[in-house]
Amino acid sequence: MQRILFVCTGNTCRSPMAEAILKNKNIDGVEAKSSGIFAINGGDASTNAKQVLVENKIEHQHQSNSLTHKEVEWATLILTMTSSHKAAIAANFPAAAQKTFTLKEFIGEDVDGDVSDPFGGDINSYRDTFNELEKLIDAAIIRLKEKPST
Question: Could you tell me which of 22, 70, 127, 134 has the fewest CB atoms within 10 Å of its CB?
């Protein structure tokens, strides 16, 4: 079983969309969750993130979740939206460093490449981020199939 944890800042935009995209693919043996480095537990996904998921016919119930040892231990792979998220995990959860990658790093793109942050932007910013995430997650799925978890 591969358990993938997507991590962003507030767990209201990028990581919930990434979680929803991966879950919507219905891949056997793959589970997904999301958390935020500075998330407030129980918050809703942003209005525009929810709208973009609806536009793409993806149903997803979400409540924001702060990153804790429980989530880190659950995950077999942690995929962050930015290099600063990755650094924060390495600093706060050193044992997780070897299973933590930026999403772009995991698929072999720029190690320091960040997923665009639509927070505070208009609906088109969220659409752009959704499209970016979908492309990256499709590439990550290929990579996961090449390298099964142990």
Answer: 70
Q: What pLDDT digit, counting tens, does each position of 48-68 carry?
A: 999 999 999 999 999 999 999
pLDDT in tens, 105-122: 999 987 668 999 999 999
Architecture of domain 8-146: 3-Layer(aba) Sandwich (3.40)
| 141 contacts: CB under 8 Å, gap ≥ 6 | 22, 25, 27
Smallest Cα–Cα separation from 11: which of 81, 76, 72, 74? 81
**Is the entire prediction scored with pTM above 0.85?**
yes
* Catalytic residue list: 8, 14, 117
Q: What is the DSSP string of the chain?
A: -EEEEEEESSSSSHHHHHHHHHHHT--TTEEEEEEETTPPTTPPPPHHHHHHHHHTT--------B--HHHHHH-SEEEESSHHHHHHHHHH-GGGGGGEEEHHHHTTS-TT------TT--HHHHHHHHHHHHHHHHHHHHHHHHS---
